[in-house]
Amino acid sequence: MQHRISAGVIVEHDGRLLLVRHVKPGAYDFWVAPGGGVKGTESLEEAAAREAREETGLEVQVGRLLYVEEFFNPECRHVKFWFAARFMGGQLNWSHPDTVAEHITQAAWHEPGALSGLTVFPSFLTTRYASDREEGFQQPVRLPLREMTFW
Question: Which residues form the Nudix hydrolase domain (predicted)?
Fold first, then answer.
């Protein structure tokens, strides 16, 4: 089994969350916060900012670590580090070649209350993020290992 280190960002702006949509007809259709694999010697924070730029066209300032997520499929075990990030500028654009190859078809800002009708990853965005934010994230939250639904 392979192992993969990933980093992503939770970006809130004007009360909305930044998400990207992955659509592979006949296989999956879900929304996820921007993020992906760490390349070479880049830091987790650098990877998170790069992934946000590639997947959404936006520049973000990466802040503190919020969550550590572990998940797996039959081929790979993932550890993903989710950081808070601040929107710094840019226009939504999901045309980067790596983004197209990952079946990302859209990037958008979503009202948290409108997520209930969508398939959203990581699941903590619809279950515990609001309460964790209200409590102030005293320390990073380590989430339990989960099996991936799509890959």
Answer: 2-132
What CATH number was assigned to the domain covering residues 2-135?
A: 3.90.79.10
Identify whether the C-beta of residue 107 lies closer than 8 Å to the C-beta of residue 18.
yes
113, 38 contact by CB (below 8 A): no
Digit-coded pLDDT (tens) for 3-61: 999 999 999 999 999 999 999 999 999 999 999 999 999 999 999 999 999 999 999 99
pLDDT at 106 over 90: yes
Omega into 25 within 30° of 0, i.e. cis?
no
> Which two tokens mark 53?
């730029």
Residue 150 carries which side chain, given as an amino acid letter?
F
Per-residue pLDDT, 16: 97
Q: What is the pLDDT of residues 116-125, one digit of tens each?
A: 889 998 999 9
Q: What is the DSSP string of 29-93?
A: EEEE-SEEE--TT--HHHHHHHHHHHHHSEEEEEEEEEEEEEEE-SSEEEEEEEEEEEEEEE---
Report the C-alpha dihedral over residues 102, 60, 6, 109, rounded to 10 degrees: -50
Q: Which residue has the tokens 């659509």?
A: 23
**What phi and psi values does residue 87 have, to the nearest 5 degrees?**
-65, 125
